[in-house]
Write a structure and sequence with these properties.
Shape: globular
Protein name: isochorismate synthase
Strand content: 25-35%
Keywords: Isomerase
Enzyme class: isomerase
Catalytic activity: chorismate = isochorismate
Organism: Dermacoccus barathri
Helix content: 25-40%
Number of helices: 8
Number of strands: 23
Length: 418
């Protein structure tokens, strides 16, 4: 599915120029590219999009992060770079996506596109890699998928509800404190699914999420695993969720109840502490708020905490992402036992769902989210996409409510396919 790891490091010729504001970033991605050659990291009309493959590596197993970073460091050292903009995300940039488990068949992919367009803080730029032209291609609008049919994934909703019940019994017996259980479903269209359509829908309807695409994995994640920007490290932790009703007054009341919910506050605290513990070896002057705030999204509301610190050891954004993965927000507590419960109860390979997804530049700066609210387009059969949703399970969880929460979390991708 992904390219094999090359025997030698390619020498890339990279040029970054200032660009007149190009408008909608997602709308710049040309048609006709296979899903795995479309890259995106866009939130509130800022970020990066790219297409094509100037270089790529696939890694797997326990060393998938370290092997990808070793390849990246060699690529950076060999590259010929002219960067007239010199901002985070300019010059040589790689887009990456990593599997949730080291045993996954999906492994990891780190891709350098042929062209990248970025925008940040009122500045726009174009980066070309090993290209003789800096002309943006003409763009054909994306077409909506047609004839989409949905089937159950590894477990039906009823079977997954039973798995949640089993997890709650394990918690009550003292085996684990928290576990995040995910489920999947399969959507099949009449023709190849255009990732540009999904990105356009997600970036418009869910502007506070990062609309991402890397190697066929497409989604809109609300959770920033880590950002490293000139020595400042930031991570947004989301854990504790309630579904919105569409009534502003009712939703305000629900937000207040979420902020007081002992079940959700316990779940959230596990996630915050796991992030703090992972970042502290790399950072000083850590700032961990005492209480979360409520993040309002169109479909759900989350308890959220922004953790930050000053980078002290020079670790790259990819190293930080590897240190943070998997957090309690996507695995559980304690991590090892929760991972064993996931293997026992989910009956599926998550692939790169709930793994780090994002980008890194030559300075090591970058942004990595958690691949949530997402789907994996089948590279061998692009008419098919596998969607995922997961929920944090603690002692106070209710299986029926967790199924409803999973449906709410599937909503962004289900809607994007319409």
């Amino acid at each position: 599915m992904n390219e094999a790891r090359p025997a030698a490091t390619p020498r890339l010729r990279v040029r970054t120029y200032e660009l007149t504001d190009p408008g909608d970033l997602v709308g710049l991605i040309p048609a006709g590219r296979p899903a795995e050659d479309v890259m995106s990291w866009v939130r509130r009309e800022e970020g990066l999009v790219g297409w094509g493959r100037a270089a790529a590596v696939s890694t797997s197993g326990d060393a998938r992060f370290a092997d990808a970073e070793e390849w990246w460091d060699a690529l950076v050292a060999a590259a010929d770079v002219v960067d007239e903009v010199e901002r985070p995300g300019t010059g040589l940039v790689g887009f990456g996506s990593f599997s949730f488990r080291n045993s996954s068949d999906e492994g990891a992919a780190l891709v350098v596109p042929e062209m990248i367009v970025g925008r940040r803080d009122g500045h726009a730029w174009l980066t070309t890699i090993n290209r003789t032209t800096d002309q943006l291609p003409e763009v054909k609008p994306a077409e909506a998928p047609t004839g989409v049919e949905r089937t159950d994934g590894a477990l039906s909703p009823a079977q997954w509800r039973g798995a949640v019940g089993d997890a709650i019994e394990y918690i009550r017996a003292g085996r684990i404190d928290k576990v995040v259980l995910a489920r999947d479903e399969i959507h099949t269209a009449d023709a190849d699914i255009d990732p540009r359509w999904l990105l356009a829908r997600l970036s418009t309807a869910y502007r506070d999420t990062w609309a991402f695409a890397v190697d066929g994995l497409v989604g809109g994640t609300p959770e920033l695993l880590v950002r490293s920007d000139k020595g400042l490290v930031t991570s947004r932790v989301l854990a504790g969720t309630i579904r919105r009703t569409g009534s502003d007054d009712h939703d305000l009341a629900l937000a207040a109840s979420l902020a007081r919910s002992s079940k959700d506050l316990v779940e959230h605290e596990f996630a915050v502490r796991s992030v703090e513990a992972a970042l502290r070896p790399h950072c000083s002057s850590m700032n961990v708020p005492d209480a979360p705030f409520v993040l309002h999204l169109p479909n759900v509301m989350h308890l959220a905490t922004d953790v930050s610190g000053a980078l002290t050891d020079g670790a790259s954004s990819l190293t930080l992402a590897a240190s943070l993965h998997p957090s309690a927000a996507v695995c559980g507590t304690p991590t090892r036992e929760a991972a064993l419960v996931i293997d026992e109860l989910e009956h599926m390979d998550r692939g790169r769902y709930a793994g780090p997804v994002g980008w890194i530049d030559a300075r090591g700066d970058g942004e990595w989210g958690i691949a949530l609210r997402s789907g994996q387009i089948d590279i061998e059969n692009p008419c098919r996409i596998r969607l995922f949703a997961g929920c944090g399970i603690v002692e106070g969880s209710d299986p029926v409510s967790e199924v409803a929460e999973s449906v709410a979390k599937l909503a962004p991708m289900r809607e994007a396919l319409r």
